[in-house]
Amino acid sequence: ECLKAAADRTSNLDLKVQLNRKAGDIYRGQLDDRDRAIKAYERVINVDPNNSDVIRLVISLYEEAKQWQRLLPRYESLLGLAESVDEQLELLGQIRFLSETHLGSNQKAFEWCARAYALSPENAELKSELERLAEAADAHASLAEILAARVDEFDSEEEKLALLRQVAGIYDRSLDNLDAGEKYFRQILEREP
């Protein structure tokens, strides 16, 4: 409590961060008080929202406490700080899992997967996951739009045709909307030898 009180009184932001971080470490380690540790670490994040080390600590504590609703904003913070595509993909995978498994939202899981797919459209495993979540979330129209937008990004005509066939098939079979899929069927006919 002494560290928290000192942190509350100081106007020096660096000192405020250090004192709250130390308080969180003591609550977490020596006192085994997860709730107070979370509060202390959250105070650090309020002052220093780019402190990825503390964000990771808070994430681990929320996971231990099974406070799933509180995890998402912290994962989003970490995602905003990610420096590489690989790190972004890893975090998007964790957010997708959280959304589907713990928050019970197939739609949100699909949306997070779509963000990951936008970063790595060549990843076959990610594409399969996107397709699975589209089915679970009944997001076939969104899947068709996402895939159609990617057609011209592929180098080989064979890959483009395969994607166009998939998009046309989604409109025809999953959405029962042959009219909407007509332009993709036309593109297939124009491209096929």
Could you walk me through the main structural features you see in this protein, from its secondary elements to its overall organization?
There is one protein chain. The chain is mostly helical and 193 residues long. It is built from eleven helices and no strands. The longest helix is centred in the middle third of the chain and has 18 residues. The chain is elongated and about 75 Å long. The termini are far apart.
Structural class: mainly alpha
The ordered H/E elements are: HHHHHHHHHHH
Question: Helical stretch count?
Answer: 11
Distance between the termini: 76 Å
Radius of gyration: 23 Å
Number of strands: 0
Q: Could you report the average pLDDT, rounded to the nearest whole number?
A: 89
Tell me the fraction of residues in β-strands, as a range.
under 5%
Provide the low-confidence segments as ranges.
none
Helix content: over 70%
The backbone outline, from C-alpha atoms, is elongated
Provide key terms for this protein.
193 residues, mainly alpha, 11 helices, 80% helix, elongated
